[in-house]
Structures are given as C-alpha cells and as structure tokens.
Amino acid sequence: MIRLWPKSLVGQLLLIVALMLLLAQGVNSFLLYRGAQSQNLVEASTSAVSRIAFGQDRQASDRPMRRGAMPVQRWGRLKYSANSVVTDDMQRLPELETRAGQAFANMGIVFSDIRATFIRNLTTDMTGHLIGTNRRAWRDNPINRSMGDKRTPPETRGFVIISAQQADGQWISVASVVRERTPLLVRTLLFQTITIYLLMLIPLILLGRYISRPLKSLTAKAHGFQPGETEDLAEQGPPDMRELIRAFNVMSSRVSSMIKEKDVMLGAIGHDLRTPLAALRVRVENVEDDVERERMIAGIEDIDHTLDDILSLARLGRSREQSDPVDIRSLIETIVDEFTDLGHEVHYQRGDKQSALIRETLVRRALRNLIGNAILYGQAADISVEKSGNKLMINVDDDGPGIPEEKIESMFEPFLRGEASRNRATGGSGLGLTLARAIARDHGGDIILTNREKGGLRATLVLPAD
Hints:
Strand content: 15-25%
Order of helices and strands: HEHEEHHEEHHHEHEEHEEHEE
Number of helices: 10
Number of domains: 2
C-alpha cells in the first residue's frame, strides 16, 4: 500500500501547502470559468445590441445601400414580430437586459421592454436572424489570411437572443452566437498553477531542508546519546532550532554530570559496604557452631549478591566493554554447561549457528538470570533459538506455575518477586528480570514473558541479529 502521508515534518508541511494551493487554485479556476462564461454572454449580447441599433439607425435614416457596400445579410437580418421570441417559459437574463437597456439609452434609442435569454439550440424561427456565424469564412478569405489571421474561431456554446419592443408594440429580435473559449482558459490556468507552485514550493523546499538538516542531526544525537560525551552538537538552522540545540547541549551536559556523580557515589558505596562485609566474613569464620556459621555466611553472600546486582543495574549503559560479533550457540552452550555441572536440569535445542553484535559479559549475565529463574520456579529449563527478520529470539521455557497475565509487566519492577517471601532459598533479590530487561534494551532488544499453553512460563530474550 502506497503511503500518501509523509512521515517527516517538512514533508507534511509541503504536502499541506501543496493541497491548499491546489484548493485555492481550484476555487480560482471555478471563479474564472464562471467569469469567462459570463463574459462570453456579454460579448454575444453586445453584438446583438449593436445589430439592433444599426438596424434602427438605417430604418430611421432610410438611407439606400452604397454601391459595393457590405450587404445587410452579412450582419444577420432582424426579426420583426408582434410578439417577443423570448417567451415566458424561457429563462431570462436580467443582467443582460439591464446592460442592453443602458446601451440603448446611451445611443438615444428608446424601447418599452427588453428581453434576453440564452439557449443551447436555436429555434427554427430564428435560423435566418443569427449573427456571428460567418467569421470562419471571413478569416478563410485569402486577403485576411495573408494578413496573418489564421485562428480558428472557438466552438459554438449556444445563442443569446435579444428582443426589444418598440413604442408601436412591435418586437425586434436577433440571435448572436456564444463562443466557447475554455481551451485558452485551461491553458492559462495550467500555466498559472505551475508558476504558483514553482514560486511557492521551491522556496519552501529549500526552507524545509534548512530546518530539517539540524533537526535530523539533533535526532541522531539524541538517539546515540552516551553519558560522558563532551562534544556538543553544532548550533545551526533558524534561531528557534539553534535555541533547541543549545538547550539539548546544556541538558546532556547536566545528565552526564549527574551520572558521573552517581558513579562516584556508587563506587564509594560499593567500597564502603564490601570492606566491612569482607571483615565480617573473616570474623564469621571463627564461629564454632557450624550451623550458625553457615547461616551467617549465607546472609553475607546474600547481601553481597544484592549489592552486586544493584551496582550492575546502576552502571548499565556505562560499560566500557565493546560490542563484538558473538556466536550465540556457543555462548548458550557455555552457560548450559555451567548449570549442568552444578546439577541443574537444563536442555538446549542446538540449532543453526547464529551471530549477534553484543557485549558478551552483559548478555551472559542476562541469560544466567533467565535460566536461574526457570530452574528456581520450574526445576528445569529448556532453551531454544529462533530468528525472526533481523531479530534473534532466545527462548527459556520452564514447567513452573507461570505468572498471572495482569502481573507479567509488574515482574520487571525492581525488588518484586514471584514468591512473596524474602527468603533467598525461594527467590533472589528481585532484580534478576529488571537487570535482564535493562541489558536487553541496552542492546536494542527486550525481554518478553508469556505463559505457555501447556503450562509454565516462556522468557524470551530478543536481540538484534548481526
């Protein structure tokens, strides 16, 4: 399906302007067309009025025709009748009647009544009383053609009939041809439309590029923002865009400073907590009661693991490890061997070799968290890999109780566990899924939890394929 609505702001602006110009030009064309049609009627009625005035002048003067003069038939013969040829059932044209009355008055000709109408087909009684039909013959005359007038008269659109009543009650009528001049009008409107589009859209396109270039740079900078970057984005474009870029540079500098302060604080917390924990571990080793000593050591390890998860989650995105192409199959096999050596039941459906551009240490930790949860809640884990488009889907299935649909999204919240107790034996710190999703999203992927139809839960690690 063709997308007609552009995605970019500049494209949408240009499309809206083009549509508005087209609409305005359409209205203008309609008005010009109506005006041209009205002008055609006025021109035809003007010829008819002139012919009636000429006839009245000849009738009043009763002058004989000069030898060699153009015969009256050249102009069309006037129709004299007791009744007007413009009957009551015809649609009259008040505007033309008013114009004709004013024209006759200016020439000193008085009529008691004037009627005008427009018809498509000429009636038989007016066939011999028509003017404007012999222009083609006049233009085809060799003398006139030799003067360069070779234009073909426009097509006939209809006929205007002017009927005027004299003082004695007799009506004088004549019909005049109405020519169709729309082809010339169409060419003029087309040329006008093209000119307007060129004069309006070309500057708008240049202005759009002037605005969109810094906007694209700002968008790319925002997508690729890394805390700690010291290079500011160059200010360019119109004043509003420059102000936006300046505000972005200030914001990124503040964010980098805050993250740097956070890293310093976390480093201090990690050092200040691990040092007394190490000392406490040494003292606990001297406890004589074996059961009590093991409990104390487990508690210290629990605190140490929780602290490690918190620091890892807080420092995510600041890792100095570079992304490299990694064989996902080999990575999964290594992790599976680790869990198998510890006596856990983990199965891997070995498939084709798949590669992804990842930071191996972080992805390894995310997979360990997912497999650890599967073993903890489902006693076993079944791993498979699928490829969908440019995405790699690493599925970790278990046979546990699953998660209610309304609680799936909340399981990614920090320190929230599927098991309500805080016992380390029945669950971790509640940061495993949070950390795994943060790692996946840092790679441009995600973690998806779905309940299996046959029971259990499927945790899917989505990564971009290489």
